[in-house]
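The data are quoted verbatim for reference:
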Amino acid sequence: MRRWNIGIISTDYDLKDERRMISTFLDKYPEINVLAFERPDYPVDPYVHSHDACLNVIDLMDIAFVIINKRYGGLYIGDNNVSITYAEIEKLYKNKKIIIPIINQKAWDERHEFFSAFKRSSEDDISKFGLSYSFNYVDCYRVLELIEKIHKSAHDNFCIFYSSIFELEAKVEGRLRGLTRYFCLSIMHKQADELRKKKTFLSLNQSLGDMFDKNLYVSPDVTALVGRAPKKRLEGALVNDFVQGGKTIILGEPGAGKSTLMIKVYLDCIQNGQQQLGVIPIYISLKDKKKEDSFCITDFYRESFETYLDRPLFPFCDFSLISFWAFLDGLDEMGENFEPYEISRLADTELMKYVVLLSCREKYAYNYFQSTVLGSKFNQIFLLKKWSPTKAKKYIRKYAKGIPLEKRNNILCLVDLPEIINTFNNPLITNLILFSICEGNMTVPPSFRDQADSLNYAVHVIAKREVERNDYHLSIVEYLDIWMNISWVIYKSRENNSSVYISDVVNFIVEKYPSMGDKEALNVIMSIFDTNVVRKTITGCIHEQIMEYLAASFLLEAILTKTDPYPAFLAHVIRPEINHLLVAKYNSISKKDKNEIFESLYRYYQSILFSDSEKNIMTRIRIVYYLTRMQNENRSSFIDFTEKGERNDLVRISVFSGCVKHGNLKLENAFYKELTENPDFESLYMGYHLVYYKDVTDKEIPFPYYDNTVFGWSKTFLALYKQFTDPHREYFYMMRIELYVISRFVETRQSTGIISLHDLKNIEKIVQEYSNTREKEFYRFILEAYQSVKEMYERYHV
């Protein structure tokens, strides 16, 4: 990245003071390199005449000050009809450099007098008239011709006029500050082009721009959590709200299309010419933001200048001159490990002075927006709805129009398969399946069982495509190996609030696969990962769920091969989504690998059974989580072994939870009895919830995590609430336990926390949906547990 090259073009003898003043003024800014012929560092090539050297330097200039006073200047050696100054100005205009003309007021005034006299004369030839004219200030009419050329130019003809050198500095600074809007617009258009090129799983084999141009985009439906849901198309309603100065939050589950919606509205604002109405939209991805980062316009543009213009922030930019619309994408990816007070500082930043559209996963909504002042800054909060069968069919038909005829019928037949159409309720999963059918020749109807299956199939198809496109001597397995390693490193970096540097990953790839060079390694990274070219970091994957799946695959492979980070990772709390995908992927692998993984974990569990160090207890908890959920013929024997041999209550909680979810009502009864009759066990269970769902850190509640009834439990409630609404049968068997825990959280805090009456009614509705279950006695227990929650809510709700 080089500095800004600002040139000074003028004649010499009559403008030494002006040149010196501008040069000295610009030298105060380290971001600027002054190009002036009197300076010792003026770039002159050997074997070149001084005139041509001056013309060559114009190619290096970003901005040029053109100063005109009395003199016309010496004639250019390459064309004796014009001066070298005239030739320089001609080239500046031809090369479309940014030109700032500076004209002495006396010369400007004489231009008017001269051309007025010429029009009144009977002379047709201006040169003859000029030779006979008596000038009061300039040396000759050619100076005035040059001023007239600038005055009538099609661009950059806005002049600075000065009478005294003492007023010149302020005017120069003012014109440079006036470039702020120009640079902001340049960056806006470059950013829009980059976003249109963005790869996305919403249409994996095309860019976002292709998808928008081909009318593949489907406008989502929303539920209004705050404000009123729009009656017409969401994107237009958001723009209308922006015009009125509103602020909106978009919530949704992973893959629901939050980022695509954000980018669509951003591009619509540009296409509709909002920037011509005094507003400049800016799009800020939050996924690579760290705790130490600020949220101010200057920092955004500092990075944007480096990214899009390959220059440092222009030192004269004054963003107070501009009004912005800020699109903040992915608050959850930035704030997963932030505390609520750290997230809430966004409320006090410069960005909140502007119109804002912000996206976030639904699971973080209560914690980020209801428990902090941040939520009060927004007048609308919308939740993206799942796709209905009608919307899914509409999208599938749109998708089919753009593919070859021989595959089109395969796609169209999906809309007539009522047994699977409800699966297409999420844009990400829908496109993974459609992509896999078109690009990977998946059978129809699709032979997938769950989300992990569709993710697995899709990443294999992408890897196969990369192998076919590039001759890097990498197999599909090796591509996946690299991607899995990178995903795990990204996940750990977010846990540690650190960065993943591109150079480190390139070195890792080259070292592991010596046939690769740095360029090839970088291409492998860029195939599915996002990067920040200024920070030189890898910020994430083309979709967060892809990264989670690859990280889960990495951990599963580590267990199978008994390599780092196994077994160390077992002692740490892993993101729940990664745990779920790890188990789901395990259930789809070969029987041989299943047994190898299961036995490896089982043996390691036995080896640390009698050690009650914090590390070994946490490790046993994680092993129990996996082995009670993995489909294996030895699962029953493992459960029997833990029932007899495990004495640590924290680990027993994990055993109970894993077994109950598989419908073991005998253990559910024992679990419930222990909770209700053993206060220490109950406190331990509640405290572990707070740590696992990150309401508190393991430093705030010391191991082994007994609940002290002080800390909030909003994330825990959201996690349990989400489980209640999950269609998987396994959560039905945990309902009595978790309803009891909710009632105890309310009672011990003597507060309902974030639970709303709407939430309570939804839980009641969900409970009633199980009324036809065959386990009638167990269902009665669930009703009693819900009644206890309701009573506690009515007692403590303020």
